[in-house]
Amino acid sequence: MTHPIIRLALAECRTNVTRLLLTAAAIIGGVGFLAGTLVYGDTASAAFYDDLARAARNVDVSVQTGWQGIGRLEPAYLDRVRGVPEVAHVDARRVEQLGLLGADGKLLTNFNRPGVGLSVPGDPTLAVFDLRTGRLPAAAGEVAVDKRTVEEQQFKVGDTVTVIGTDERTTKLTLVGILDFGINKRWSGLSVAVLTPAQLVDLTQSWGYAEIVATARPGVDEEELAAAIRAEIENRGRDVDIITGSELRHDLAVDAAKYVDGFLYVLVAFAIVALVVSGFVIINTFTILGALRARRLALLRCVGATKSQIYGMVLLESGVVGLAASAVGVLASLLMGWVLLTGREAVATEIPDHALVLKPATVAIALITGTVVTVLSALLPAWQASKVSPLGALGQSGTAELAAVRPGRRIIRILVAGGFALFGLALIAVAPPGFIAMPVVFAGGSALGAGVVIIAPLVAGRIVQWVGWLPGKIFGVPARLAATQSGRHPRRTAATAMALMIGVALMSTLTVLVATAQDQSKRELAENFPIDFQVSPIPARIGGPSPTLDPSVLADLRGHPGGEFAAVAAVRTREYVFADSERTDVWSVDQLAGKIRPEVTAGSLDGLAPGSVAIGRNLAASLDLGVGDSFELERSGRVTVVAVYDDGPTGAQVLLDWAQFTSDYGQGDADRALVDLKEGVTLEAGRAAVTAALAAHPLVRIDTQAERRDELSGKFSELMTIFGGLLAVSVLIAMFGISNNLALSVFERTRESSTLRALGLGRAQLRFALLTEAVLVALVGGGVGIVLGGGIGWFAARGLIDTYGHADPVIPWLDFGLYLGLAVVTAIIAALLPARRAARAPIIAGLAAE
Fold first, then answer.
1. Assigned domain for 651 exists
2. In its keyword annotation, does this UniProt entry include Transmembrane helix (predicted)?
3. Which among 128, 201, 152, 142 is positioned nearest to 177, based on CA atoms?
């Protein structure tokens, strides 16, 4: 026989389908947002790790001594690793310097570095690349090349390409495959050719392996495998690095993109926000529904239901609805993740693709959060309903529990709210600099928001009345009635206003961060890539000394008659050693004008002369040097710092006067030339002018920094698309919470609206009053949300700027105004149908409602 509590719960479910669907919709929306954020974050992380750390894919252990000539492993190491019982797959990788000639016959270089040659993997599962087109080399005379080089040189499968070894011997090979290496910082910007191991040895005269990688047998984790390999080869007498695949993946990812950890911190911050928003949506919805059905639950006491039965029935019902809706929310999260990824790929084609990642932890978090929050949301309404006596139920108002806060609990509420607010402010104040601050600031903001939510019932109604004073004067009785009703029902007003506050605060926070990031990216790109063109010599041979620029190159650039160039400067660079053995590159330029001048953050370059230097801010921070300080240089002797600069046209950290540089190193030719275009000259016209000026100099390379700047700007915009997708979902869930709460707040006052109609209020007046109340609540909730969210976003952006840039956070006032308008429009739309329903409802039926 079915337990009475179960029978009661089932009966309530059957007779309250509409209300349960509203509750389930809130839970599905909240859980879908939470799980969807986690799914999207896990998928994006997996995609970026796959692209940034492709060399470590399927690798459980890596054995290495270095890359590109730094160290090599003897063939005996491969045999020892292969002989470890825990090893399932093993591969030895050869990585050597190998030049590739472009379609014009010139050596392809990147900042005077030639290309790289790799061996075909012995085990395809441990390849450092993906095969895009064609096949891998299988015999001598064949080669596969990276897709970037193929695209730039317009090669295609079947073409003949030429490689050049360290002995300057050229070899013609047939292109049989095109490879994708992901975003690999090891060979960034270099040509990468893959050949058979035998041919790579023949061309480069290599003798050993750069790395040996292994995969563990089933049931053996990477730590166990690393320990077994370490025990096998430690006694070989060589200093080798044995690291796990997880460590290698992280190192490669961070090396390829220093912001990869920051990206993960941002996703953690979004997960915190998702948890808070979803919890608030569920709690707020269930609280309103609990108050709405308080009279019905109390009436069950009149027909014999005990307190424990009422209490157990509500909790059981909430648990079942919470679990079922949470399960649907997990499915909805997959759809949300798919939509985000699809939309991202449509506008950001270079962002790596990846299948959706749904981890067991995500499912568990979503189901537990949805169910637990729903049950907790039902505790107070269930307890209040079970307290009511059968006789008291006959006069119980369906909205009594939302009417006011009991005077005896005001002090407790104020203390609790103050505690949350102080805790939140403390978290924001102690947040560390950099991306790691994001989760901390968002957690502090969530605590501060919780304090606002707790205190809201004490102040929301009065604030709405203040805001409604002017509309009441203008629009008369209906508008005054709207403001008065808000004051008479502070809990209901606070519940709806806080739904608006949470949504608008979330949007405001993210908008400040995105606007600041966009402003900083433009600023940093303009400072890091100030020069339009750089002209540098092509090395005559692989592995030889860095060449210098023929003086006639500078003469031809400066003598070009077109007038497109604002400045042409000669740059010399050398490695300097300080008295304390600290090493860095130093540079000098024969004219400091326009964009060629580095950005000075302290001091002035006007005082740069023999005996003085300007230093980069990173070096200044590491050596604790400032303007006016002096230190020893290896050749210059004691020099005085006259300026500190942030970004310049080179990466060198010490700027010398041209005469000082000549005195230290003697007369010499420039390493490169910097070309700054005049205002109004397009990049296309500038490139044509530089190319024409250098027509007689085939052994120079023209790098377009402006195009690189535009390319990076585009990449950053694509990255912002990722967070834009999360912001879009945040907006949707916030708008859903607003709509749900406003609809419920109008629905639960059916009896109240009918009473007003019975007292003479017309249908149009009632509709106008309900809509006006929604607008007033939207203005208050939206305004508080903008202040709270804007402040949280400002502090989060301030922490990032202090670490990675300068200037101040950007406050997008126009966007804030749009969000406030969006909140008002959403409130009107959400209240429109319920207000129409309330106005058209028969008065007698409405008075008889719960």
1. yes
2. yes
3. 142
Residue 188 lies in a domain: yes
Q: Residue 389: which region, alpha, beta or left (left: phi > 0; alpha: psi -120 to 50)?
A: beta
- Is residue 24, in this structure, part of any structural domain at all? yes
Same structural domain, 51 and 68: no
Cα of 432 vs its chain's centroid, Å: 18
Q: Are residues 275 and 349 in the same domain?
A: yes
Q: Is 54 helix (H, G, I), strand (E, B) or coil?
A: helix
**Measured distance CA(736)–CA(324) in Å, rounded:** 19
Question: Containing H/E element for 755?
Answer: helix 750-758
Instruction: Return mean pLDDT, the chain.
Output: 75
Residue 135 has pLDDT above 90, yes or no: yes
CA atoms of 447 and 426, how far apart (whole Å): 10
The Cα–Cα gap between 311 and 578 comes to: 77
Please tell me the total count of domains within the chain: 4
Tell me: pLDDT of 654 over 60. yes
CA atoms of 642 and 109, how far apart (whole Å): 36
Residue 293 is predicted with a pLDDT of 64
CA distance 272 to 791: 17
Residue 432 lies in a domain: no
Do 231 and 270 lie in one domain? The reply is no
Confirm if 654 and 585 have CB atoms less than 8 A apart. yes
In angstroms, the Cα distances linking 275 to 25, 34, 350, 512, 792 are 16, 6, 30, 21, 17
Q: Are residues 769 and 817 in the same domain?
A: yes
- Give the domain extent around 635: 551-696
Identify whether residues 642 and 726 lie together within a single domain: no
Host H or E run for residue 753: helix 750-758
Condensed to tens digits (0 to 9), the pLDDT of residues 589-607 reads 888 877 777 878 888 888 8
Same domain, 757 and 684: no
- Rounded Cα distance between 208 and 463, Å, is 77
Predicted local distance difference test score (pLDDT) of residue 277: 63
Q: Which helix (H) or strand (E) holds 576?
A: strand 565-577
User: Which H or E run includes 414?
Assistant: helix 410-430
Q: Domain ends where: 673, 696, 719?
A: 696
Rounded (10°) angle between helices 705-747 and 490-528: 180
Domain stop point among 675, 696, 717: 696
Q: How many residues does the chain have?
A: 850
Shared domain for 292 and 373, answered yes or no, is yes
Q: Cβ of 545: how many Cβ atoms within 10 Å?
A: 9
Residues 267 and 323 in one domain: yes
Task: Tell me which DSSP letter residue 545 carries.
Answer: P
Kindly list the distances between the CA atom of residue 612 and the CA atoms of 494, 602, 606, 608, 624, in Å, as whole numbers in the listed order.
65, 14, 11, 6, 17
| 35-66 pLDDT, tens digit each | 777 777 677 667 666 666 667 777 888 888 74
User: Which pLDDT does position 667 carry in this prediction?
Assistant: 84
